[in-house]
Amino acid sequence: MSLPSERGADIGRRIGVGLMYGLWRPRVLGAWKVPATGPLILAVNHSHNIDGPMVMGVAPRPVHFLIKREAFVGPLDPFLTGIGQLKVDRHSADRTAITQALDVLKNGGVLGIFPEGTRGEGDFASLRAGLSYFAVRGGAPIVPVAVLGSSEKRGRLVKGLPPLRHRVDVVFGEPFDAGDGSGRRTRRALDEATVRIQKQLTEHLENARRLTGR
After folding, report:
1. To 10 degrees, the CA torsion angle through 74, 76, 79, 81?
2. Residue 156 lies in domain
3. Which of 37, 65, 182, 193 is at a distance of 20 to 30 A from 144, taking alpha carbons?
4. What Cα–Cα distance (Å) separates residue 208 from each residue in 36, 73, 122, 148?
5. pLDDT-based confidence at 124, cuts 50/70/90?
6. pTM for the whole structure
7. C-beta separation of 116 from 44 below 8 A
8. Is residue 1 part of a domain?
9. What dihedral angle (degrees, nearest 10) is formed by the CA atoms of 101, 178, 168, 49?
């Protein structure tokens, strides 16, 4: 099993930035808070399909997102794999995806996760345990990312996409460690980490909304 391509993720970032700035008006805040090197997890709220490509395009480092396997259809399968994205089966313990994600962190890369598991209200209300597992097991700090404005419906020309030239805010937060410093990986330790993560992500989203007026 090969390591997801860092070069591919960088190419994906360049494609993403061209598309996002070509179609919409991203406003990026706090990107300087993202550590320049070392393993890192971007925890992104998820209310629209463009949230992943948007973050991939505007993040200061190449990102390997865990993406549901249902998205890897037709020509998108080799394309997403080629730009370093990770296919995950959400309905089982996908050992291949888990190993690939941990390898990304082990090699000092950036893992992108939608901790809500699927597209929803984008408010981090329902957090899955996967984020705490990767943060604790991979020894990686988490940077919360709020994408705001992507689910705007007024003025849409294409169903399912935000209005063209619409402003979308991407707000990066302060990195934090999910673990308690003990290095424990027990179920209780992961549950406690999930509580800490949810608190930090919710606070960041509230701050991002105040900052952007959304």
Report:
1. -90
2. 6-212
3. 182
4. 22, 34, 13, 8
5. low
6. 0.88
7. no
8. no
9. 40
